[in-house]
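seq:
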Amino acid sequence: MVDLLSRPLVPVASEADAEATLSALLPRLDAGTSIVVCHVVEKAGGGIDKASVEQREERAEEIFDVVRARCRAADVDVDTRIDYGTDVAETVFDAAADVDASAVVFTPREGSRWLQFLTGETTLDLVTESDRPVVVLPDDDRTVDDAASGARND
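struct:
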């Protein structure tokens, strides 16, 4: 059986998303493990984009700076990539196939596209038709916040 975390693809949408996901993922990895982190620049598909491609690429590099610093501190090798597409989930799975990722790994954030991704009908189709696993790691910040507020994680 393949270790799900042997070479994961880790999609990140922002610095906060990268911090949360890496906080959950890095303690689970051995030193020297290699991960691939991607940021998807969502295209409007014929419509007007919210920001220029150059602005979005600069934003991705800012996110990758956080990723590289965290991975360097954990002695984890990281490759970064920017992917472009009109459907974020489909683009992530295409990237996972492109790099032969062992799994797609992320941490859901409240209101995030990934949380929406997991609950949508399109997602069900993508996950069930995907040729690789999806691993959802617990959000340590949310777990701490929930415990402080008395929320249960049943």
